[in-house]
Amino acid sequence: MHGGAPDGRRGGKPDRLREAHAHIAAHGRSMEMLDLSGCRSLAECLDAIARAASDGSRSWVLAHGLRIESWPEARWPSIRELDGATGAKPCVVMSFDHHSACANSAAMRAAKIKAGDCIEPGGVVCVDAAGGETGGLREGAAGRGWAAAPEPDRAARVRHVASSLRALSAMGYAHVDDMLSQSWLGAILNELEREGSLACDVGLYAPVAALAEVAGTRAGWESSRVRLRGGKIFVDGTLNSRTAAMLTDYRDAAPGFPRGQALMGVGDVVEAMHAVHGVMGDGGELAAHAIGDAAVRVVLDGVEAWQRELAGARVRESVKVRIEHAEVVDAADVGRFAALGVTASLQPCHLLADVEALARYLPHRLDRVLPIRDLIASGLVPGRSLVFGSDVPIVRANPEDSILATTTRKRADMPCSAAIAPEQAIDERTAWACFGRGH
Fold first, then answer.
1. Which terminus of the chain has fewer CB atoms gathered within 10 Å of its CB, N or C?
2. How far apart are CA 5 and CA 8, in angstroms?
3. Strand partners, 302
4. How far apart are CA 202 and CA 177, in angstroms?
5. Bond into 348 cis (ω within 30)
6. End-to-end CA distance of the chain, in Å?
7. Any residues with CB less than 8 A from the CB of 340 and at least 6 apart, and which?
């Protein structure tokens, strides 16, 4: 993608970067998994899976990084193809966005799921036109299939967390916000800090449903370098899975979901804000995954409803809200971020991986993809209320990828005519400022 990192002065690169959206343990674990991101076709993918399945040290084949939109076939491996490549060894292959997957027959049995099952939240076990099994898993079903594999033991978790933070530190990150933090993560970070091997400061965002449990343990691990900051919710899915909630129909939509999948409504967002405040008090933060323009609007409407509720009660409770991803934002909602005090936590590097999916599924909304220039013009401040991250291991964490995406709006090997919403490009100095330390 982009060339070597600039020095500490050129282009306004901060000396200490903030990675505002990462999954630390998953990143470290992914380093030990089969990575399919380099596969250029279905045949290459199946060949890599077959080689991994022949490795006697693996009880399961867990693979990640699948990006079918970049292949000539533009389709998932079928359950029959996976069975042929793996035999009786369970196999789950996760899309790079971690919102859809495919599984072989052995993994489907291990997960106790079958074609046509609906698994919350928003999960579907896909079927073909005749109602037969395909191995396709979407949203909650993908998580169910992945979770059927044996979990790493504590020693492996420590190794994964430490290796992830070392890798992020080597890229220049001094602070990392971990999204969807596991209940055991704080204790491992504390152990690394006591040993003198904690490579980055870390802010934790636990699932809202588990926030009280995690907060109950914080006295044993929280420090000036490791802080519990709030909770995380999912308001929709992803673009590549066609589950991001949109205001208009997808072209070539997923069957039964013309506008994606809304996983939460306005009332749910307000309820989550109350839950965060109940646990964290004033200053607690709610990180809301919202990729499609309809999901972004739901979160903004939720914040507005919360603020009306507090004004009516004449109280001043404070919950900070940050919208994660906001990959498509309707023009009518751009100014509402600053007006409502909502932070835009963006991952511009996703643009580089999503080019084909955007062109295929949302050709009529390309002008609304990552409207960064408009968000700044509306009042968001780079490094404060407008922050950048990567979502690693969804895509790699190299900050240069987001610099490339925000300044050129395309991959390096693409002509200028392929740029998506080039009018939203910003200069390199401003882009680097979005990686500044906001805490």
1. C
2. 9
3. none
4. 6
5. no
6. 30
7. 300, 303, 304, 307, 321
Phi/psi of residue 24, each to 5°?
-60, -55
Q: Confirm if 100 and 125 have CB atoms less than 8 A apart.
A: no
Three-state SS across 359-410?
HHHCHHHHHHECCHHHHHHCCCCECCCEEECCCECCCCCCHHHHHHHHHHCC
Tell me the CA distances in angstroms from 249 to 2, 87, 91, 246, 257, one per residue in order.
Answer: 33, 39, 33, 7, 9
Tokens of 88: 């009786």
| Dist CA 258 CA 279 (whole Å) | 37
Provide the pLDDT confidence category of residue 15 given band limits of 50, 70 and 90.
confident
**Mean pLDDT taken over the chain:** 91
**Nearest to residue 392, comparing CAs of 10, 23, 20?**
23
Beta bridge partners of 101: 94, 137
Nearest Cα to Cα of residue 32 among 162, 147, 141, 148: 162
Rounded to whole angstroms, how far apart are CA atoms 145 and 100? 10
Per residue in 379-406, pLDDT tens?
Answer: 999 999 999 999 999 889 999 999 999 9
State residue 260 phi and psi, 5-degree precision.
80, -160
| Cα 147–Cα 150–Cα 156 angle in degrees, nearest 5 | 110
Structure letter (DSSP) for residue 246? -
Cα–Cα distance between 93 and 104 in angstroms, integer?
Answer: 9
306 CB burial (10 A radius; 0-12, 13-18, 19+): buried
> Is the CB of residue 392 less than 8 Å from the CB of residue 23?
yes
Distance between CA atoms of residues 341 and 234, nearest Å? 20
CB-hemisphere CA count at 13 Å for 316? 0
Residue whose structure tokens are 């932070």: 343
